[in-house]
Amino acid sequence: MSNLIRCISINTGSTINLTHEILSMQYNIISRATFGDKCKDQEAYTKFIKETIKLAESFSVTNLFPSQHWLHVISGMVRKLKKIHKTGDMILENIINEKKTKTDGDGSLLSYLLSLNDHDSSNPDGFHLTINNIKAVIQVKDIFFGTKHDFFFFKLSTLKFIN
Fold first, then answer.
1. What pLDDT is stored for residue 89 in this prediction?
2. Residues 6+ apart with CB under 8 A from 91
3. Which of 12, 15, 28, 66 lies at a 20 to 30 A Cα distance from 117?
4. What whole-number distance in Å separates Cα of residue 85 and Cα of residue 92?
5. pLDDT in tens, 23-52
6. Which of 82, 105, 84 has the alpha carbon at shortest distance from 35?
């Protein structure tokens, strides 16, 4: 929030892209809730989520004919998806490994999920998550709950307020 206020105060009298600034603030808040302290790969992870959303929202001929798997290869979608998956996997692996080295539980989602990964924990149900399960939970949460879709409602309410 302080970065948003600082950006607005620095650019007093000039035009700023408020949508971009509020989205950046939203990504930072969600990343902090997910990972706890600011981690070194937070910017790379935010970029990865934005690229994933952009790829999911883009139009491709494969959307018209999803059962024609050869179109996925010809259009380059398979290559793009494999590349973005590999990038995201490496980023999340680095973040998880960094978090594992810290022994204190900071109340973040990742700390809680890692406690479910620990087979020696006192989990009464005996429920344990693998590292891949943890990565999937974090990605789905960020893609569906920390994206432009939330911001759409903010814009809509702002427009209603102005009118």
1. 92
2. 41, 44, 45, 48
3. 28
4. 10
5. 778 877 878 888 887 778 888 888 888 888
6. 105
Instruction: Tally the domains of the chain.
Output: 1
The pLDDT confidence band at residue 86, using thresholds 50, 70 and 90, is very high
Let me know if residue 152 belongs to a domain: no
Owning domain of residue 94: 2-27+40-146
Percent of the chain with pLDDT over 70: 80
83 versus 16: the higher-pLDDT residue is 83
- Kindly state whether residue 22 falls inside one of the protein's structural domains: yes
**What's the confidence (pLDDT) of residue 163?**
44
pLDDT of 160 above 60: no
- Is 35 domain-assigned? no
Q: For residue 140, how many other CB atoms are within 10 A of its CB?
A: 10
